[in-house]
């Protein structure tokens, strides 16, 4: 009985210790200092964590301040994703905001919390592929649409099943053998996954293709797997 009581008391003490350690872990940036969950060192936020107040920040901390990579959500609705140093934006990042009610983005370099120069990203980027033999990505003309064709040995692939698109924005559309999205917001990210048979029709395999398009326009993507 005494042993059991001792275990209970120790458990309560451990819980109190955890609560106390959370209470004394401070964030020194006033706008996000009301609530913090994450790693601590010497009573200050240090390592990965989430801090909230008028604004919200999720990412790396050092000595109680955002330091490293992180995402900062302002009360105004603006969002900054990028690098921080001693609580200020420092280095490359992206700022998402609305201009005249339209979603907009600024990509560039910040120094001492100030935007100093623009960075022009590549027009498109292939992020990850699985079981893809070859692919092509072309900007066809001005517009606001991304279309994807699924091929096998340069011909339309008629054995596709379990096709799933995971886009960052837009509404579904279909043009001939192409499937895709229109009315999208750039940069546009999308992951395409599906099952298909091999050329001999003796086995199935899984295909995935993940890409990002930064330049506005109408794009055609061909995935040959």
Describe, in plain words, how this protein is organized in 3D:
This protein has 225 residues and is mostly beta strands. It folds into 2 domains: 26-118, Histone H3 K4-specific methyltransferase SET7/9 N-terminal domain (Single Sheet); 124-224, no CATH class. The protein is 10% helix and 61% strand. It contains 1 helix and 18 strands. The strands form 3 sheets. It has an 8-stranded antiparallel β-sheet with strand order 1-2-3-4-5-6-7-8, with no helix packed on it. Strand 5 and strand 6 form a beta hairpin. The longest helix is centred in the first third of the chain and has 22 residues, at 2-23. The protein is elongated, with a radius of gyration of 24 Å. The N and C termini lie far apart (67 Å). Residues 12-22 have low confidence and may be disordered.
Q: What distinguishing features does this structure have?
A:
mainly beta, 61% strand, Histone H3 K4-specific methyltransferase SET7/9 N-terminal domain, 18 strands, six-stranded mixed β-sheet, eight-stranded antiparallel β-sheet, 225 residues
Give a nutshell description of this structure.
The chain is mainly β and 225 residues long. The chain contains one helix and 18 strands. An eight-stranded antiparallel beta sheet has the order 1-2-3-4-5-6-7-8, with no helix packed on it. Strands 10, 11, 12, 14, 15 and 18 form a six-stranded mixed beta sheet that branches.
Strand content: over 45%
* Beginning-to-end CA distance, first to last residue: 67 Å
Characterize the main sheet.
8 strands, antiparallel
Strand order in the sheet with the most strands = 1-2-3-4-5-6-7-8
Secondary structural class: mainly beta
The total of beta strands comes to: 18
What is the rounded Rg?
Answer: 24 Å
Count of helices? 1
Order of helices and strands: HEEEEEEEEEEEEEEEEEE
Total number of distinct structural domains: 2
> What is the average per-residue confidence, as pLDDT, rounded to a whole number?
91
Shape: elongated
**Unreliably modeled segments:** 12-22
Helix amount: under 10%
């Amino acid at each position: 009985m005494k042993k059991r009581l001792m275990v209970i008391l120790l458990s309560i003490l451990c819980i109190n210790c955890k609560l106390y350690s959370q209470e004394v872990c401070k964030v020194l940036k006033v706008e996000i200092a009301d609530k913090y969950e994450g790693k601590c060192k010497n009573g200050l936020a240090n390592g990965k964590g989430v801090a909230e107040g008028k604004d919200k920040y999720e990412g790396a901390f050092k000595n109680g301040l955002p330091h490293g990579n992180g995402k900062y959500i302002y009360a105004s609705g603006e969002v900054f994703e990028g690098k921080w140093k001693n609580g200020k934006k420092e280095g490359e990042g992206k700022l998402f905001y609305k201009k005249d009610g339209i979603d907009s983005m600024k990509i560039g370099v910040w120094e001492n919390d100030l935007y100093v120069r623009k960075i022009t990203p590549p027009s498109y980027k292939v992020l990850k592929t699985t079981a893809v033999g070859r692919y092509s990505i072309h900007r066809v003309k001005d517009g606001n649409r991304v279309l994807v064709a699924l091929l096998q040995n340069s011909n339309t692939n008629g054995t596709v099943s379990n096709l799933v698109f995971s886009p960052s924005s837009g509404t579904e559309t279909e043009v001939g053998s192409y499937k895709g999205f229109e009315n999208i917001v750039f940069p546009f990210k999308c992951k395409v996954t599906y099952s298909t048979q091999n050329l001999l029709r003796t086995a199935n395999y899984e295909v995935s293709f993940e890409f990002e398009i930064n330049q506005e326009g109408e794009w055609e993507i061909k995935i040959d797997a």
